[in-house]
Amino acid sequence: MLSYFSNPQRFDQLARILIPIFGALALVLFGVGVWLAFFNSPPDYQQGETIRIMYVHVPAAYMAMALYAALAVASFVYFVWRHALADTAAEVIAPIGAAFTILALFTGSLWGKPMWGTWWEWDARMTSVLVLLLVYLGYMALRAALDDAQQAARTGAILAMAGILNLVIVKFSVDWWSSLHQPASVIRLDGPTIHSSQLWPLAIMALAYTCLAGWLILYRLRSQALRRRVRALQRRRDHVARQREEAVS
Amino acid sequence: MSALGAVFVREARLAWAGGGGAAGPAAFFLAAITLAPLAIGPAPDLLAAIGPGIMGFAALLSVLQSADRLFGDDHGDGTAELYLLSGVTPSWLVLAKVMGQAAATLWPLPVIGLVGALMYGVPVAPAAVGALASLAAIPALSLIAGFAGALAAGIRRSGLLIALIATPMMVPVLIFAAGAGRAAFEGDERALANLLLTLAVSLGATALAPFGIAAALRSRLA
Lengths: 249, 222
Hints:
- Chain A: It is a multi-pass membrane protein.
- The structure holds 2 protein chains of 2 kinds.
- Chain A is built from 7 helices and no strands.
- The radius of gyration of chain A is 22 Å and the shape is globular.
- About 0% of the residues of chain A have low confidence.
- Helices cover about 80% and strands about 0% of the residues of chain A.
- By secondary structure, chain B is mainly α.
- Chain B has one domain.
């Protein structure tokens, strides 16, 4: 299936169908999710109305991590099978993932102020997400610095794959690090269970985020593929023009 | 093995011939730990408490400082191609290269780290543990810097890019190495665990990073 859709034309046909589907789904799910999260779910018995930040924050954090996994998988597929489309996918996923990471950090900070009394707490999870942002930035900076498209693709793939190994070790080490100085006053959300009245809006928002990310990625993938074709056509036109000039002279 | 020995020696001699050898990282390290108290203030208790952490942090920066030289020149003058064509296993070769540079340039870091920690008012035992931990961290730090350096080889002003790529990868080794000194200072029995974890990261990096560096080097010649 992988190689079936790595054909640019087939991918284009598929993308043309999937883009509106993902877009419409995202729109509907966001409509329902936002309505549930902000107007039709009970305030938390401990956190009050600020619990509503969770519905924006948790899906963003989940997307930040899921998209890095997708970036690494796309890089792996490119590295092994050399499908150009997989590389383009990695290229377009990175900035979207970084944007979700920034959103997660930002909303987490907004949530932390009323709940923990501080904008930023050096706890294990927040620090890991901050490191994740650095990993995204490093990947994007490396790709941007390499002019040769093939070098950027291969080198980026190696970095993205090393990054997943690194993030696992970072997660462990940061947990270890914060356990040396565990702040005692932090109130945490993760009680044993989350009530279904909160779970539903959260699940719908998570789906909405997923559809939004899918829509953005497919849209950007298709425009990148089109851009490649335009470049190829331009090159051919220039080539033909040069040949004509030579024939005239 | 003689080819690897030659690469090791060549790298060590190059570091002394072109880059001032161990003087560069040592001077940088000294400058960094001189500036920190000027920014933080001279309160002895505070300086003693942060001393082990500052030593680990400054050692990390010193390793990054020379990371662009390792593969940048080889990429520019074609040596990297010759390395890959030489028939010697590339991962062994890059390991010898990274270790050659590290052995020639980074050995003063634990020594200055020990003296620096004492200057910050850290007692002798935790200062020694911190120095030992930074010694244990050097293989991991220089291999990670080598990996980032190989990815960014030959890019103009690659220093910043290398730092951005290498920093997230250096998080674990920094945590364990600085944590060893910190725990020893606080009388926490986890100092030994931290020291051993630092060693574990260094061993893991020695086992894995050469493949990554070799792949990175090859990808930049494609």
